[in-house]
Amino acid sequence: MTTRDMRAAKVGTQDITPDRRRGADLRVLLSPRTVKATKGMLGVVALRPGDFVSEHYHPYSEEFLYVVEGEVVVRLDGEPVPLATGDSLLVPVDVRHRVENNGGRPARVVFALSGLAPRPELGHVDTEPQPGDVPDTGSAAGGVR
């Protein structure tokens, strides 16, 4: 498929099965799996107080974070970077990162990745144990209901 063959695609958060394997409620909205995107992906993560997205890195992608609501701490190679509503952050390729909601209010963060791995299983590398035995009801690559 060429970019000329692509069609616009609308996907709502309610259309995507939540993925909690890495902690918080993560939903990949636009991706190769959900809309046949070829250059990147976009999603949203909802973090209740105490929630986190476990540490990982992307060997092929830059990640862009934008805080829509609340406050989070993003740890870049272990160093804390506090973000509040309206803040954004670039996470470079190969930088370990973890997103935490250490506050008392829910937070919502939009994330986008630019540059895709040659195969989906190569695009995300976990660097800490996954929280609990949460059943895999979705996929970090975007499980559509």
Q: What does the model show?
A:
The protein is mainly beta. It is 3% helix and 40% strand. It is built from 1 helix and 10 strands, in the order βαβββββββββ. The strands form 2 sheets. Strands 1-2-9-4-7 form a 5-stranded antiparallel β-sheet. Strands 6-5-8-3-10 form a 5-stranded antiparallel β-sheet, with no helix packed on it. The two termini are 24 Å apart.
Quick structural overview:
With 145 residues, this protein is an all-beta fold.
Give the helix proportion (percent range).
Answer: under 10%
Instruction: Please provide the count of β strands.
Output: 10
Mean pLDDT: 87
> Unreliable segments (pLDDT under 50, ≥5 consecutive)?
135-145
What is the end-to-end distance?
24 Å
Q: Count of DSSP helices?
A: 1
**Beta-strand percentage?**
35-45%
Class by SSE composition: mainly beta
Strand neighbour order, sheet with most strands: 1-2-9-4-7
Q: What composes the largest sheet?
A: 5 strands, antiparallel
String of helices and strands: EHEEEEEEEEE
Quick one: overall form? Answer: globular
Oligomer state equals single chain
Rounded radius of gyration (Å) = 15 Å
